[in-house]
Amino acid sequence: MNVTARRPFGQNYAWVVAAVTFFSLLAAAGLRAAPGVLLTPLNKAFGWDRGSLSAAAAVGIFLYGLVGPFAAALMQTLGLKRTLISGLTLMALATAASLFMREPWQYVLTWGVLSGLGSGAVALSMGATVVNRWFVARRGLVMGLLSASTATGSLIFLPGMAALAERGGWRPVVIAVALAAALLVPLVAWLMPERPSDIGLAPLGASEIEPPPAPGRALDGVTLAFTVLARAARTSRFWLLFATFFVCGLTTNGLVGTHLISFCGDRGLALVQAGSLLAAMGAFDIIGTTGSGWLTDRYDPRKLLFVYYSLRGLSLMALPFVTFDLTNLAVFAVFYGLDWLATVPPTVRLANEGFGERDGPIVFGWVAFGHQIGAATAAFGAGVLREIDGSYLEPFVIAGAFGLFAGIAALAIHRPRPAVAA
């Protein structure tokens, strides 16, 4: 056994690793939320239309999802720490480079292509890898906490970014996001071992130290990602998980995360007030997603998904028809926030149950790619519909109908029967 350095806290050091993972996911969430804040300031500064600006958000979201399964496979071959540090570094460099942009294609390149590739290595598939590698006990709870980091990113970054944009335009927002990603690189290098056995530990809740696998190459990771996809794609379970998570992306960061601030602007709300609304959702999502992880350890994840998607769909269909006063918006923020990413822990559990602990995170990476396709579809499609019709009514009603469909589809996901002891 190769023990590089012992750390404090014993097996509880897994919680330190979970905390580092949480902050890394938080930074990626802040980056992915920033285009929603930048939409209006960039329109004012450069005169770029909403369609072009939405295209950059859509490309970034799409690549964020596409990179996920490859990143999960690279974590199995090249290593978790190397993959994570590479992603954070690219996030910092790409967003900082956008300070020099002058044309719309440069915004698409920096905030769409490059930041999408970087943040894709710091996605929830990475969280699933950390959970499977460092935890045997309390996996649902930890996955709920890590999933909540995306909402926490909105909670911490959005009001501040909105205030920066209102006072100083788009440049201070870019600088803040780039610095947040850059500061995490040395933290990851210092505090995150590759796996528990590197510091002489077993995973939390296990009694035996697992020997590390032989190191691999980047090409091995790419091959593994496609091999796992080929096996998973032969099952209906994979396609139902993919379809429901497509709807999850379409109804969350694609539509609400990208366009809610603009929608609120259409209804007379100031930029900071709209950003605070999203932040309030993020605060309640911390409760909802963590609670969903606790529930996932105890109840049928398919029934949980049915409840989450159905309620989300109904709330989105109702929003365009309510009065935008403090009471209604507060109710929506609480109700929708509790459900924002509550779907992640049950989806991860279904992936692990169906495809095993080694392949499960990679399968979830491909399923999360469906999430980002849905998000990219909503980010671009809602912007186009808003330009055509001058209203966000149709995008919200369409997204709500998809939410109801996903709730029904979740009940059809097959679960393997538990083994019966002889």
What does this structure look like?
The protein is globular and about 60 Å long. The longest helix is centred in the last third of the chain and has 46 residues, at 344-389. Helix 1 (13-46) packs antiparallel against helix 4 (104-120), helix 1 runs antiparallel to helix 7 and helix 3 (80-97) packs antiparallel against helix 4 (104-120). The protein is 77% helix and 0% strand. It has a single domain (10-204, 217-410), classed as Growth Hormone, Chain: A (Up-down Bundle), CATH 1.20.1250.20. With 422 residues, it is mostly helical.
Descriptive keywords:
single chain; 422 residues; mainly alpha; Growth Hormone, Chain: A; 15 helices; 77% helix; globular
Topology:
Layout (H helix, E strand, L loop, with lengths): L12 H34 L3 H28 L2 H18 L6 H17 L3 H11 L4 H30 L2 H21 L26 H15 L3 H19 L1 H11 L4 H26 L4 H18 L7 H14 L4 H46 L3 H18 L12
Please report the number of helical segments: 15
End-to-end Cα distance: 35 Å
Shape: globular
The named CATH superfamily: MFS general substrate transporter like domains
Task: Please give the number of β-strands.
Answer: 0
Helix content: over 70%
Please give the CATH architecture: Up-down Bundle
| Cα-based radius of gyration, to the nearest Å | 20 Å
SSE series: HHHHHHHHHHHHHHH
- Poorly predicted sequence stretches spanning 5 or more consecutive residues: none
Strand content: under 5%
Number of domains: 1
**Biggest sheet character:** none
Structural class: mainly alpha
Overall pLDDT confidence: 84
CATH class: Mainly Alpha
What is the name of the CATH topology? Growth Hormone, Chain: A
